[in-house]
Amino acid sequence: MGQKTAVFMTLGGQEAINKAYDQETRNTLGERLSFLEGIYDRDQLKTRRADLQKVVYIFSTWGMFPLKEDQIRDSFPKLKAVFYAAGSVQGFAKPYLACGVHVFSAFAANAVPVAEYVTAQILLAGKGFYLAQRLYRIKGYPQAREYMGKMPGNYGEKVGIIGAGTIGKLVISYLRNYKYRILVFDPFLPQEEADRLGVEKCDLNTIFEECLVISNHLANNEQTRGMMTYEQFSRMRPNAVFLNTGRGAQLVEDDLARALSEVPTRTAVLDVTFPEPVKPGHPFLTLENVFLTPHIAGSIGEEVARMGQYMAEEYEAFASGTPCRYEITEEMLKTMA
């Protein structure tokens, strides 16, 4: 039998494909599959319809454009699977699944740099890094040093993880190297799994009341939007740090800004906002206890190639009939980011 036909497809063009699937990964896939010229424009679905009838596998990344069920069936009648070298598939997956097409995501690969970033921020927060550098600049070395001498540090301190999905669990595993008490809010986390992870399940208010560092990893869906309000943020300890690498829509940002204004020794480290970027004039841009970064926690630079590698490995497993690790189901879409 000849090689099956595949195609790279994304609005990001060849540059996006080369970033997500590095040369080594493309060479490996090219040895096993016959690749058509990439699809980087929706109009190509019509102009290249005859060629696309042969496609069995689609490999994509950020910029995967959504199609309706009838478009999928018409353009890709032989399609068996989509391999997505990026994270969330919410924007395109459902119609493919409805057509009986398997969908795979490199969400676990993208979780690695996020978890690394969060772990680093938690360690810095526990040492009082964000508050210390502000006090040093504003009040001077002696007063900053005196105040920071009262910080509890990391040993035995409470860290709150909001959402124990792929990223949350990975952060928890990284934190095992340190003597933290980890509190988790996640209604979907079974008690036996919490016991295995070595964490304490609790409600959202307890997380904000008791933890020195609080990190959000909730899935982004209708149930979680606006979940964190002034009721939670006003409970933060005077030296607490709130980290958000999830989604900005999960919190009422004006409520967070209010709580930070009321107690300037609190801190927020925000890699995501809603909308993104922050609107001009928003308090986040002027509050000295807010640290904004432009959505950098996920895969950047050479880290992106990890996702293409994960998808190449998933293709190998799928094609050989061995168990796959990162297949997406309709049930998973209900709780995934």
Blueprint (SSEs and pairs):
Blueprint lengths: L3 E5 L4 H8 L2 H10 E3 L8 H4 L1 H4 L2 E6 L8 H7 L5 E4 L8 H6 L3 E4 L1 H20 L2 H11 L1 H8 L9 E5 L3 H10 L5 E5 L5 H7 L2 E2 L2 H7 L2 E4 L13 H4 L7 E4 L8 H10 L4 E4 L19 E3 L12 H16 L6 E2 L1 H4 L4
Parallel strand pairs: 1-2, 1-3, 3-4, 4-5, 6-7, 6-9, 7-8, 9-10, 10-11, 11-12
Antiparallel strand pairs: 5-13
Task: Please give a structural write-up.
The protein is an alpha/beta fold and 337 residues long. The protein folds into two domains: 4-109 and 301-333, NAD(P)-binding Rossmann-like Domain (Rossmann fold); 127-292, Rossmann fold (3-Layer(aba) Sandwich). Helices cover 40% and strands 15% of the residues. The protein contains 16 helices and 13 strands. The protein has helices at residues 13-20, 23-32, 44-47, 49-52, 69-75, 93-98, 107-126, 129-139, 141-148, 166-175, 191-197, 204-210, 230-233, 253-262, 305-320, 330-333, and strands at residues 4-8, 33-35, 55-60, 81-84, 102-105, 158-162, 181-185, 200-201, 213-216, 241-244, 267-270, 290-292, 327-328. The strands form two sheets. Strands 8-7-6-9-10-11-12 form a seven-stranded parallel sheet, sandwiched between helices. β6, α10 and β7 (181-185) form a beta-alpha-beta unit. α7 (107-126) packs across α10 (166-175) and α8 (129-139) packs antiparallel against α9 (141-148).
